[in-house]
Each structure stands twice: as C-alpha cells, then as structure tokens.
Amino acid sequence: MATEGGAVRTKTVCVTGAGGFVASWLVKLLLSRGRYTVHGTVRDPGDAKNAHLAALDGAAERLRLFKADLLDYGSMAAAIAGCDDVFHVACPVLLHAPNPEVDLLAPAVTGTMNVLKACSEAKVGRVVMVSSVSAVMVNPAWPEGKAMDEDCWSDVEECRATENWYTLGKTIAEIEAFDHAKRSGLDLVTLCPSLVIGPLLQSTVNASSTVILGCLKVDCEVKIKLRNFVDVRDVADALLLLYETPGVSGRYICNSHARKMSHIIDLLKSWYPGCKFADKFVQVSDEPTFDSGKLEKLGWKIKPFEETLRDSVESYRAEGVLD
Fold it and tell me: What single-letter DSSP state applies at residue 320?
C-alpha cells in the first residue's frame, strides 16, 4: 500500500453491483480496512434494498453510491472515473430468463466490456473480476476424474447447444475480458467461485442462497447431487487478496467444500428438528471437483462448512425468509 510521508494513502476503488450478495460483503470488508474509499454502483441509490450499504461501518465517510447500469457506458464510466482500481462483481443471476440473449448474455458480456473499457479510459491499476466455476466446468473433453483447474474452460458450443445461458454468458465474458486486457495492457485477474452461500447482508434473497433455502421448504424439489460451496465472506477475502497481492495473474478458482445435498439436509434436520424440510427429491449427476490450489498458495483461508451453513440459515431466519 502506498504511503505519503509515512502515512497510509487511502485508495479509491469501484465495486460494481455493490448491493448484491458478494459485493455487499466486499464493500463491508473494504470499509473495515479503513484505507479504502469505495464507489459502489447500484441501479437506484435511493432504493430501500440498498439501505444495508449505508448502514455499514465507515459508509458515511468512505462510501459513495452511483446510479449506474452495466449497459449504459456513460454511467459506468462516471462511477469508475477517479478510481485507482476496480472490482467488477455485477452480473445478472436469473433463475428464469424469458429472453436469455437480452436478460443474461447482454449484461454479462456487453456489460463487462463497458466496465473494462471504462477502466482503460480511467487508467486504473488493477481490475479484479468475478467470474464463476460455471466458466470452468462444462467441458466434455476434460479428463474424467481429474480436478478441474484454471486451464479448464467451459465449451461455448456445448453451452449454447444445451441452452446453458448463464454459463455461456460467464464464459464468453471472461474470455473477452482477457482478450481486452491483452490488447489494452489492462492488469486483469479473475476469480471463479463455486456456489456462494453464507449470511445475508442485503434484505433480498440471492439466487445461490435458494439452494439452501429450498431444503427448508416442503414445496421445493431438491436435486440430490454433490455440489461445491464457498462462504461469501471467504469470497470477499479472496477478492481483496487478489487485489492486494503483487504479481498475481490469470484466473483463480475459489472453491471450499464439496457436499452431497442429502448430507446437508441431514445436518439441517439435526440442528433444526422443528423446521419443515423438502420432501421431493430427484437424483442428478454430481458436479465435478475443483482445484483451488493456486488461490491457496497466496494464503487464502476458508471457514468450516458447518459454520457457513449454520450462519446461512440463522441469517435467513433473522431476515424472515423462512416459514
């Protein structure tokens, strides 16, 4: 961290999609360090669903929210102007997209390029971008049984053929982001988290949390398979680690725990015997395994799965989203 006259110099960083699940925890972490001023982009700074950001410690002094849309280059450029570095976290995560080309692909790909072009124009130092293991895992050519690492990319044609739009958007956005960085000289690193769970800061329930919430709702159907999870607080730590570590480059898989959904339901039943639980199940193929060794070599630490799961459910109960 740069110093001026022996004092730590405050840096200004932009966090796109600041009101979201992961981004909210990142903003909280940045503010807690005391040396970052944060520009957060949201669709509507006055919306009550962003009130949790203003309530964060240090927000009054070092958080400024910008009204911005990924598809509006001017609004993104205004938020990024004057920033030393950028965390690109914003991305649509829709469970049902009536028009996937418009609802998912455009914001994921065009939105990412708008952010990176604004970063180049503002001459920021580093961009840390959130991708996903979705951009890693759909690859029929990968050796069976081998843990997927950063060299594995999801097959674009396979994703399009199977109408896996979220994965397609994440994959193309990350590919084009690295292409832009190579052409422009932008310092870009990407983080590819698995399914992110953990306590909510925001009042709305994000898509990944519905996987755990579904286990606690009788009318939900649970897909019984091996799934990969990571704690939202560990993801925020990983993003800051990539930002603050000199010499990092390329992609970093961010995965902590692989657990069978049946095991998770058994855990929840033992902890919350008075709760309702899903009673509809369908057996599907397990997810592949992932290698987070590249990130762990930087000193990344993870929380126990049981802590993450319990904190998640206690958060849902506190927010009143459980019956």
Answer: T
